[in-house]
Amino acid sequence: MNNVKNNQEIGRYLEKLISENFDSRRKFCIKVLDVQFNAKPSEEQIANYSNKISQIIKGRKGIQIADLPIYANLLNVSCDEILSCGEKYIPIKNHMTNYQLAFSTDKKVWEKYINVEDSISLNYDEYGKSLIDYAFKFKNYDLVKYLISINYINIIPEKDFSDKANKGALWAAETSVKKNNRNYLYNPYVYERQTERNLRTNLIILAIKNKDYKMLERLHAREMPELYGMDYTCPIPYEDIIKNYQSYQIETSCIDELIETIANSDENMIDYFSSEFNVQSRFNRTNTVMYPYLDRIVEKMLLLNIREVELPIRRITQHNKKMYEKLVKLIDEVHISMCERWGVEPTQKEYRKICNDIVINKNYNLIAFWNVREKGILTDIFRIDENSSSPILRELIKESNEWYDKIINLAEKED
Hints:
Largest sheet: 3 strands, antiparallel
Radius of gyration: 30 Å
Number of domains: 3
Mean pLDDT: 80
Number of strands: 9
Number of helices: 19
Strand order of the largest sheet: 7-8-9
């Protein structure tokens, strides 16, 4: 090589490369020592090596042959580029890309390429893909959990769940990936930005496949954020909330994969996603609900002839029955109270008028009712539109749908 520069020029160029890739010379020295000794360096080693780098940068010493490839690798350049001070470039065969990094299962490799200033992982590649996109594609769950641990991926419910005024409003997961030189942030009421909600859904899918129940709880995996903004006193017509709830169910592109993943999971996971649970809304009222996609999961399981489908069908049947009985009780309380107040006998006509106050949205399985005694119900109900060759399952599906239809019939408006 005939364009090798002198020590002073190489020193200045090395200083430039270090400043572009590391927050400080000290951090660069620590990385070099870590590579050389494969262990955490002592303060004395760091001080000695920092002095050595200082001498090289000032041009008083040259780079040792053994150190040159280490420097080149850490600074993402070739040896020729360092020695020519940028006048000669050659292709770097082992140049790391988001695609390659997402394949790796080595934590040291992740740390080396992620924990640097302006890391490749902070940007989209020429195909418009980020490290996270590839990590999900390759199902690299250990890498995904590492990215969460260093706050490269932030699970938003953990940051905003304590805010009662906006409880659930910012549910998603956000990243440090940059697009067009700015952070790609999530606005829950802007249709064009479903990315972070898809990210949360993809996290749920990976957690299910890895049977990571702790992660599922962190993600509030069975819940939709809008459930926290709804209440039986201002339920389904609460337009901004229900529109967002609808767009989440329809437009989140990986929902079909999520449903299929749950449908094909083991009995314990089916048990988890088919259980009732309580949601305390920002109005401090507790509503009992089930997983919003449970009917679609059951229908997928029926199509695939999965044996474990009996459990979620039984649970839907029990839930529909319980919600019908609770709704009837609330209506009866209102009816009796009104009749006592006006001194009249209960009539079917007055009963039907009360039923007109039931709010229901069949497209999204939501039902709400509020009586005069500050009692109410906000829940989801389910109809199963697939059937089975099994007599037992057919009977269960029939019973479940009968309870569903009873609720719908109560809520039907009279002309």
